[in-house]
Write a structure and sequence with these properties.
This protein is an alpha/beta fold and 393 residues long. The chain is 50% helix and 14% strand. It contains 16 helices and 10 strands. The strands form 2 sheets. Strands 6-5-4-7-8-10-9 form a 7-stranded mixed beta sheet, sandwiched between helices. It has a 3-stranded antiparallel beta sheet with strand order 1-3-2.
Amino acid sequence: MARVSPTPGSAVPATHWTDAPLAWRDRLLASASFRRWAQAFPLTRWVARRRAAGVFDLVAGFVYSQVLLACVQLRVFELLLAEGPQSASALALHWQLPLASAERLLRAAVALQLLQRRPLERYGLGPLGAPLAGDAGLAAMIEHHAALYRDLADPLALLRGGRRDAGLADYWPYAGTDAPQALPPERLKAYSDLMAASQPLVADQVLGAYSLRRHRRLLDVGGGNGAFASRAAQSAPDLEVQVFDLPGVAAAARQRFAQAGLSGRCSAVGGDFLQDQLPGGADLVTLLRVVHDHDDARVLRLLRAVRQALVPGGCLLLAEPLADTPGAQRMGDAYFGVYLLAMGRGEPRSEQRLRALLAEAGFVQVRCLPTALPLQASILLAKTPSSSNVNLD
């Protein structure tokens, strides 16, 4: 049986029957003599080596990420895809780097499986580098992480709420203001461009998991400069599409629609989805990578506004990475948990937590749609009640 402290914050710690055996295990794994024995014993040697490698990867992770960033900044993946394997000297000349520096980077990239050694002392794409060669959105996200690295230079200061300069809070300006509509367009451009570049990562998962042809009018809330809305309109020729985002962003969406010849079916309305009423009449609303940027109170307010904007029986598609994604558990709490802390707002959520918020907002028949790559996005589909006379607030 567990013994729990009577009040939160009490000096008397809670205890559980598992504490003693787990403490024994912890002391054993912390013992240098046990680690030496485990490394030498044939039946445990592979476990010891794997765990040692895992610990080292945690220590060296920042260096690995900087090797990746350097490769992206040098456009090495695109170059090797277009021109084929290259020698170190040719790459050094192309990059305008000293040969010794280029060789050091190439060896590091080979070790991380970003590149491969090829015959005739050349380098080609590796199994992890090849997918990056054709993915501009992922490359943009990697370059964008320079802002996150600045925030993480002093992780304790970040955790204690210390001041952060020129990091994510500055990159995502709406996260640090209660009046996002007042932000000038030039402050919105950087993050809007990044969202548009990385939008295919999510759009492919959404459009592959759910057909939009069954709907007549789509409202993409927080839809940025219309990247997903354009894809949606092209996938469903009879679908009317509308974006709702900050005024400066909505103007960019209208420009995108005009350039794509979609102005007849696609429009954009400017406003603050946490303060202003959403346009009504849609039978489908999409929230793509929007909810995890906000706390529970704001999310609940947004979900209620979405329910009121939908026609009776209308659907909501909510797509974003989830904190409990099988096989990608680190992504939720370890990556997005810290990323959103640095941004200054939001939190990663599990499917269970999102279901609870949807139910509290008045949605029914919530179900999870399988996606090809849950690491990029999981999808929850929810409906509004068929009767418009039911008051669910």
